[in-house]
Amino acid sequence: MVDKRVVAGGVVVLVLALAAGGIYWWRQRAAVPPPVALPPPVATAPLPAPAPAPSEPVIRHPIEAADAASAPAATLDRAALVELLGNKAATTFLQFDGFVPRLVATVDNLARPHAAPRLWPVHPAAGRFAVERGATSEQIAAANAARYAPFVQFVEGVDSRRAVALYRRHYALFQQAWVDLGYPRGYFNDRLVEVIDHLLATPEVAAPIAVRLTEVKGPQPLTQPWLHYEFADPQLEALSSGQKMLLRMGPDHARRLKAKLAEIRRLVASGPAR
Description:
12 helices; two-stranded antiparallel sheet
């Protein structure tokens, strides 16, 4: 049923509008002013054209649609990772819970100043970061590289082609995790290649590398040293989190991991490295 109050209100508004217009017209007629020549119409500038809709971002390193859709899956489950890596290796090194979002977030963070360990798709290396006293300052201990040896051996043992094939089959999951991370118009595989190139550009630094305790500023002095080290060289300290990780692992491990990264890049990228 139509509300009579709405109808009545509409009629009142209409009558008031007609009355106001009639009174204005009547006053203009009663005064009978002499005719006045109207100025020529002023040409108005045309309205600016609407801004074009943003174009679709250019995808530099597409994952072929056929490969991505050949085996659609709702999740990358533990069984698929165990099949690729073996149960012992997968259980020892991987964080199965939220593996895809963890990997996507960590890949992005490796080219940034900080990569939060709580988001890593792998378990941190066992043991503690080791330093030793050098001639003029503390430096990364030669034995420190041993902490990373099992992880480097694990990475080298991964079948790159099978790993990339698994990535391609489940690419939709990685892309969705990238969108969920806050990049609705981005393409994760482009970011992956970009970060690999960034890591491959890590400078080669001869060991040992000088380090120093990070200065902690506060109203009260610490009673015990806060054992958080940073590179003594400001240029090295200014590197990204991923590049600094490679340096901490030691030059031999860094070269071996770079070789693996270059191999992965050839399988996921279109075109040569920059």
